[in-house]
């Protein structure tokens, strides 16, 4: 740690966020000899006055901290991210929040039972490409599935080029295929609905029970939200896995890049539409509708594309409004004259 030498003998360092609770963060201060686990809180003056929701630290973030002699740690700054997932802020008008950061791979976890859903896979893929990391589809519960190849083929056709691994975390079958995405310095984040087996998968990777798991409902395979907060688990081989609570609905955000990659087939067809601003409804010369008519493009896929596109546009508008509001609020706090003007407006 770098000694600042001031009166309170504070020291500054960088740390990794390993879990987020309501207002408490679990952090790991990486040091030459051994890593230290600490609890930390945000420096309110920095986060609540100057920065918006996006900058609030999340699991996987590297942060600059300050510690005092008692071992209390204050988070001063979130360092730039290489990849990140966001979700809409539950408070209307507030900027979106980061869910996980700085991962290399996104493991999209679906079980080969009632949970399997192609529209959800599109949504997950869009969010994964948008995050800046590489998606890998993990199909779980192979030991319970009579025809795993059926599901593998469906994913391969829907997401050409995306790796698919069919595994059983209970028997260990297929787990060896996952190893190529792990290793010292690698970070993966798991995404998937409650009950698909994310935590069981983490335990299998770890070789011991580090996460609680819970039984699913027999009739529809739905889980019971056993994992309640995001947590990073350090595997014996030096890789890091972020387990998340089951998210059935994951927003795609302003997902231009994610949409382009996930629906590259539709984007490619759209190049051949007669009108550049074709909405692929009833326009003459629409190459996308033509592909639906002659069976080259499943109608389900086009409908889902339009749905996610509309969602992305809505998210973009929402974000722009929230960002303007945040800017005004920062300016108001920093500039008392403007503050008076705002109050008068
Ligand atoms: N047979 C079998 N059961 C599995 C497998 N993976 C998970 N399960 C079971 O599925 C149920 C749900 O597993 P969890 O690991 O708790 O699921 P989760 O995705 O972490 O769920 P949340 O924490 O609620 O998001 C448990 O009863 C597990 O034992 C598998 O590969 N084979
Ligand atoms: Mg879990």
From TrEMBL:
Its cofactor is Zn(2+). It is an enzyme of class 3 (hydrolase). One of its GO terms (cellular component) is cytoplasm. Residues 314-345 are annotated as: Disordered. Keywords: Cytoplasm, GTP-binding, Hydrolase, Metal-binding, Nucleotide-binding, Ribosome biogenesis, RNA-binding, rRNA-binding, Zinc. Its main location: cytoplasm. The keyword Protease does not apply. GTP binds at residues 140-143, 192-200. Its EC number is 3.6.1.-. It is found in: Cytoplasm. The keyword Metal-binding applies. Zn(2+) binds at residues 273, 278, 280, 286. Binds 1 zinc ion per subunit. It holds the Pfam family RsgA_GTPase. One of its GO terms (biological process) is ribosomal small subunit biogenesis. One of its GO terms (molecular function) is rRNA binding. Residues 101-248 form the EngC GTPase domain. PANTHER family: SMALL RIBOSOMAL SUBUNIT BIOGENESIS GTPASE RSGA. Belongs to the TRAFAC class YlqF/YawG GTPase family. RsgA subfamily. HAMAP family: GTPase_RsgA. One of several proteins that assist in the late maturation steps of the functional core of the 30S ribosomal subunit. Helps release RbfA from mature subunits. May play a role in the assembly of ribosomal proteins into the subunit. Circularly permuted GTPase that catalyzes slow GTP hydrolysis, GTPase activity is stimulated by the 30S ribosomal subunit. This is Small ribosomal subunit biogenesis GTPase RsgA.
């Amino acid at each position: 740690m770098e000694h600042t030498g001031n009166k309170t003998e504070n020291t500054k360092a960088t740390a990794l966020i390993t879990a987020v609770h309501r207002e408490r963060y679990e952090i790991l201060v990486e040091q030459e000899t051994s890593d230290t686990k600490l609890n930390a809180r945000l420096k309110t003056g920095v986060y609540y006055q100057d920065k918006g929701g996006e900058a609030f630290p999340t699991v996987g973030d590297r942060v600059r901290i300050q510690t005092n002699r008692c071992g209390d740690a204050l988070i001063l700054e979130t360092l730039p991210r290489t990849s990140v997932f966001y979700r809409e802020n539950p408070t209307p008008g507030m900027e979106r929040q980061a869910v996980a950061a700085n991962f290399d791979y996104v493991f999209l976890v679906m079980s080969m039972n009632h949970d399997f859903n192609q529209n959800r896979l599109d949504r997950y893929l869009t969010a994964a490409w948008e995050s800046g990391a590489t998606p890998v589809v993990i199909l779980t519960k192979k030991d319970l599935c009579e025809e795993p190849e059926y599901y593998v083929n469906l994913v391969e056709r829907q997401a050409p080029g995306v790796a698919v691994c069919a595994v059983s975390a209970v028997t260990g079958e297929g787990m060896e295929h996952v190893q190529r995405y792990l290793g010292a310095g690698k970070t993966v984040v798991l995404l998937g609905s409650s009950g698909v087996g994310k935590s069981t998968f983490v335990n299998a990777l770890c070789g011991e029970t580090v996460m609680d798991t819970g039984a699913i409902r027999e009739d529809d395979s739905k889980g019971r939200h056993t994992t309640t907060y995001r947590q990073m688990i350090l595997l014996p081989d030096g890789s890091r896995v972020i387990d998340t609570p089951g998210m059935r609905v994951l927003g795609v955000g302003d997902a231009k890049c994610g949409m382009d990659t996930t629906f590259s087939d539709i984007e490619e067809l759209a190049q051949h539409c007669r009108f550049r601003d074709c909405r692929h409804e009833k326009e003459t010369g629409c190459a996308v509708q033509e592909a639906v008519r002659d069976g080259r493009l499943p109608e389900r896929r086009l409908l889902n594309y339009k749905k996610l596109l509309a969602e992305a546009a809505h998210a973009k508008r929402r974000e722009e409004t929230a960002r303007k509001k945040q800017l005004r609020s920062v300016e108001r706090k920093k500039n008392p004259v403007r503050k008076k003007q705002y109050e008068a407006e």
